[in-house]
Amino acid sequence: MLVSSPSSNLIPLHLIEEEDHYLMILKSSSSSCVCPSCGIRSNRIHSHYTRFIQDLPINEKVVYLQVQVRKFFCTNIHCESTIFTERFSWVEPYQRQTKRLHKVLTGLALSNNCLAAARMANLLHVAISHDSLLRLIHQVEIPVYSQPCRIGLDDFAFKKRNRYGTLIVDLESKKTIDVLDSRNTTTVQSWLKKHPSIQLVSRDGSRTYASAITEALPSSTQVTDRWHLLKGLFDALKQALIDYLPSKWTEKKRVLSLSKSEKVISPRKSDQLREKHTDQKWERILKVQQLYQQGKAVAAIARQLNMSRGTVYRDLGQTKRPDLRRSSILDPFLPTVQSMISEGYTIDSIEQKIRKDGYSGSRSTLNAMAARVRRENSDIYTSQTVLRSKLLSNLWKEDDFKTVIHDVPDSFLETFPHLEIIYEAVHTFQSLVRNQDYQRLEAWISQYEKVTIPSIQAFINGIKSDLEAVKNALYYPWNNGILEGQINRLKTIKRMMYGRAGYELLKRRMLSSLEELF
Q1: Separation of alpha carbons 132 and 122, rounded Å
Q2: Is the pLDDT of residue 457 over 50?
Q3: 212 Cα distance to chain centroid
Q4: Taking the CA of residue 30 as centre, how many other CA atoms within 13 Å lie in the half-sphere pointing to its CB?
Q5: Is residue 101 within a helix (H) or strand (E), and if so which, with residue range?
């Protein structure tokens, strides 16, 4: 408690307990005080007044401190303050909360949007509104960082496809040092000129940032982000496949060499169930006959297998595997149907023929019979399908071209002969980036710049236009990975505030750190 602290100079007078709060009445015990303006101690009391201060809750109740405070005359005739109020170490002047409560509420406001933070504070039995929490954020002192040497730049959207800002991070301390409300050349250039200590700047492939850095800091080193290089390569590969390949390529071959006995026909579900039931019945018949041969009576077999004696007698008289297929009214006309289907007659012609011969069944029965005959007499086709999406994934991930084309037919490679060249260009550049082999970059450009694939040529032209920065990306260890994490944090803060906060509040939240607060 504040009262128990030796440096508090407070005397408890009274404690009032209400249903929802405590009120502690305190009195200052100091007979003198130091003037905050000139630092001279004075013991000349001017008057008394009362301060109401909220402290951390106790026993699920709000705590209020009613403190009787003195005002003093300053004895220094040259001091600008004639009268000053008594100061305490545990509360700031004019503040309605103790320092420890103020710190907790500030941390709560920075951790969430102020509406939710106010609800959370009320659950913790601290009386405060969301407007007061918002004021606490605006009172937080923004940290002042030393002049950075290595920074990273990246853009973010205030409103997608409409308005963008720029995030600046110190690559060495991994902390956000500023948030700009625009990404245009003038704004970025103006900020960079104020920080001449910068020696290295990591960025994406933006020409706007490249131009601003060149103008403001011509002697600094520019480094293109390696992840953006690989993303540009992947986009070029994807566009190349879109321009070069259909989304689905299928090769279908007709097989005529198989005999009827070699054909494998997938049975229908009803046929499968009938075969299963036939097998079960044949197993039961064999079991009945086996028990009878062992000398058991018919009544004993019936009791053991839980069946009637009549069924046992029928099973004993069975000499071959039963055929459970139902007979059809079309069975006498089956040879005619098979012959006419093989000769290419239509169902209508077949129906007219068999009705003249005496068929009186339905058309649906004929349709089912014709479908079964066609399945049995059909030629077998084999097909191979190549999906562009799967091929894209394999071309990007696999380390061996033979693995990529393992399931691809030869006719596909004959139709699209440039596939291997695309694979080699992509994987060679991947190797350069991942191994940071900057010495082979120009050789790679010379080898593949004449490839007649527009998207690959566009990617290479982009590298040539920013060659020094790309070389530096393959030489220096710095990249924009830290910025991507900070931009995710910025997006979380934007969503946390439902996108309704302005630039100043967003910047303050980004630059304020809970770690430094506590």
Answers
A1: 13
A2: yes
A3: 32
A4: 22
A5: helix 99-111
Close Cβ partners of 207 (under 8 Å, ≥ 6 residues apart): none
User: Per-residue pLDDT for 300 more than 60?
Assistant: yes
Q: Indicate the CATH number for domain 150-223+479-517.
A: 3.30.420.10
77-80, long-range: CB within 8 Å, 24+ apart, which pairs? 78/38, 79/35, 79/37, 79/38, 79/40, 80/37
Q: Which two tokens stand for residue 432?
A: 């350069």
At residue 460, what is the residue type? I
Show me where the domains of the chain are located: 10-96, 101-139, 150-223+479-517, 229-250+388-473, 260-380
Q: What angle (nearest 5°) sits at the alpha carbon of residue 505, between those of residues 500 and 510?
A: 110
Cα 414 from Cα 403, distance rounded (Å)? 17
Cα–Cα distance list, 45 to 27, 42, 80, 465 (Å): 15, 8, 18, 76
- What gap in Å lies between CA 258 and CA 377, rounded to an integer? 11
Residue showing tokens 């409300």: 181
Task: Among 150-159, 252-261, 392-401, name the most confident range.
Answer: 150-159
Q: Which helix (H) or strand (E) holds 24?
A: strand 21-28
Determine the 3-state secondary structure of 174 from DSSP: coil
In this prediction, what percent of the chain has a pLDDT beyond 70?
Answer: 91
Q: What is the pLDDT of residues 315-353, one digit of tens each?
A: 888 888 876 666 778 888 888 888 888 777 888 988 888
Q: In angstroms, how far is the first alpha carbon of the chain from the final one?
A: 20
| Closest alpha carbon to 2 in 67, 84, 70 | 67
CA-to-CA distance for 140 and 135, rounded, in angstroms? 9
- Decide if 431 contacts 443 (C-beta within 8 A): no
Which residue is it, tokens 């459970």?
324
**Which DSSP state fits 439?**
G
Residue pair 436/229 in contact (Cβ under 8 Å)? The answer is no
> Which run of H or of E encompasses 50?
strand 45-58
Cα–Cα distance, 46 to 40 (Å, whole number): 16
State phi, psi for 375 to the nearest 5 degrees. -60, -40
CA distance 187 to 159: 18
Q: 505, exposed or middle or buried, with CB in 10 Å at 0-12, 13-18, 19+? A: middle
Which candidate, 462, 421, 467, places its Cα nearest to that of 441? 467
Q: Which two tokens stand for residue 392?
A: 């894209």
Query: Which one-letter amino acid corresponds to residue 262?
Result: E
| Residue 152 amino acid letter | G
Specify whether the CB–CB gap between 197 and 149 falls below 8 A. Answer: yes
Q: Are strands 150-159 and 163-170 parallel, antiparallel or unpaired?
A: antiparallel
470: its two tokens: 């790309």
**Average per-residue pLDDT for the chain:** 86
| pLDDT tens digits for range 4-17 | 444 467 889 999 99
Three-state SS sequence of 114-167: HHHHHHHHHHCCCCCCHHHHHHHHHHCCCCCCCCCCEEEEEEEEEECCCEEEEE
